[in-house]
Fold this protein.
Amino acid sequence: MAELKEIQKYVTELFAKQDFAKQPLVLYEPFQYTMSLGGKRLRPLLVMLAADMFSLDYRQTDNAAVAIELAHNFTLLHDDIMDESPLRRGKPTVYQKFGTDKAILSGDVMYAKAYDYLLKCDTDKIPQLVKTLTSVLIQVCEGQAYDMNFEQRNDVTQREYITMISLKTSVLLAAALKMGAILAGAKAEDMNALSEFGLYLGIAFQLQDDILDCWSDLNEFGKVIGSDIVDNKKTILFLTAVEKADNGDDRELITWYLEKTNDFQKKKQRVIELFEKYDVRSDVEKMIGSYTIKALDALDRVNVEQNQKDNLITLAKELINRKK
Amino acid sequence: MAELKEIQKYVTELFAKQDFAKQPLVLYEPFQYTMSLGGKRLRPLLVMLAADMFSLDYRQTDNAAVAIELAHNFTLLHDDIMDESPLRRGKPTVYQKFGTDKAILSGDVMYAKAYDYLLKCDTDKIPQLVKTLTSVLIQVCEGQAYDMNFEQRNDVTQREYITMISLKTSVLLAAALKMGAILAGAKAEDMNALSEFGLYLGIAFQLQDDILDCWSDLNEFGKVIGSDIVDNKKTILFLTAVEKADNGDDRELITWYLEKTNDFQKKKQRVIELFEKYDVRSDVEKMIGSYTIKALDALDRVNVEQNQKDNLITLAKELINRKK
């Protein structure tokens, strides 16, 4: 088994050397821009860690690793248009920099390129890999649709929210792990347990993201603080706060999310004050703890030597405790 | 071999019975709307005709036929956003009816569903089918990128235009035929000759589309007459006219395409007058004839009995002579 840091370094270098720019530039320049923005490269790392756990040389999974990162970046590219997000990783989003049309189109070609990379894998693995990617892309679109739908609704439950983020975020982490397992020829039951680990880890990861949106340093996080509040995103913090707040406060919270205001600073400040008044951060941190335990329980069921799981355990803890 | 009309009827019924509406409706309602708008169902028909030509029962190709139609409709959905097209098949386009965000997202899920249908085919055919679809989707995006780029340029050549429409239109027809051939287990050389037929047929088909945009009846064609002119699309008619026109007229044509005007009626009328003055329609009809001959020559090289090719020959002639 390889060291976690070694694999992380390998992933960073793999993406540093990719060059997606080619003709026509109108299409591939925004593509290359997106891919060069960096990011955690978490999904490719998961492909490689899964392969490594099942004793396949992680350096044999480059194509699947690139494929899943392309698929992920495609979803970000289109989501940023729909969410009108100005920044991604501290830089202007593609639609802001190149315009909506080019953002749509370069996302579309990135989508196909994800499949194109999968097609470079061993032929006998292709049907399973393509099935995994396709299923996850359908679910991510459904998750984004629920997310859009929630913006129009005032009766979203915590349970619905968890379903939405599972679809929008977790399934992609689970798919990355599954791809590594497929390439390593893992057994179906192990693959399923590992996917379950990815699903729960993804939920914990997204809940942590919700926290970081409110309490984080702009430079470290690379996004605008409180952007979920400005966008009226009914995150777990909002849903928990509305549930816990007394009559006056819950109405005030809902009003902030319903009424149009241009005073975003005041809105963010007041909403975060209310989140703090009801201490929803610690509620959400408890949820994160509970999903992390579920994730580790699932990982426990994978039939490989305990020490083979060390990297995934270390990574899971890093993700849950991350500050950006 | 089956009758052309029988296969056409089968394709129509196949799509009439599809129901893509499911939860979340925000995602699948625009999807179902798009698929219920109808259209020629040309690409699924080509899948089936190719299978039938190579002696596979065409009724065994439903999944690939649905896949290619989904892929085609996905491209229309996103293109209509980029081109700001108000109408498609005489009805409001998805982005007009449901908004840009839902149009982007339902296009994205349609894209994945295309792969999902391919995955229902025999496992041993999946890698080749996925490769065909992926390659074509990349090319279609590149074609759309060139199309967008041409709007900004004043030195587009006829040759560049033909390359662009090959990418944007023809490759999808070629891919449809190839999928039918893959399912029927045709030989590589026959598949390639058939794809070539599709490529040339696609060019002829698109050139005919350019003609129909100017000289066609709105009710029959289902689009707004002269919309290419309003959108400053440098179609083959425009490029040919600019090349043939005398000094004053070519400047006038270029000016119509450069300057902003709100008097679209006058613009369309005057541009079509100039097209007619230089008789570019008959030039383009000659090109169509020449690409049709190339298509039929390629079909001729496919190693099956001559009468097995009758349906494709009949269809090709119908397409080239169509009035809508």
In short: Chain A touches chain B at residues 24, 26-27, 78, 81-82, 100-102, 104-105, 108-109, 111-113, 115-116, 119, 123, 126-127, 130-131, 133-135, 137-138, 141-142, 144-146, 148-149 (CB under 8 Å). The longest strand of chain A covers residues 87-88. Chain A has one domain: 4-320.
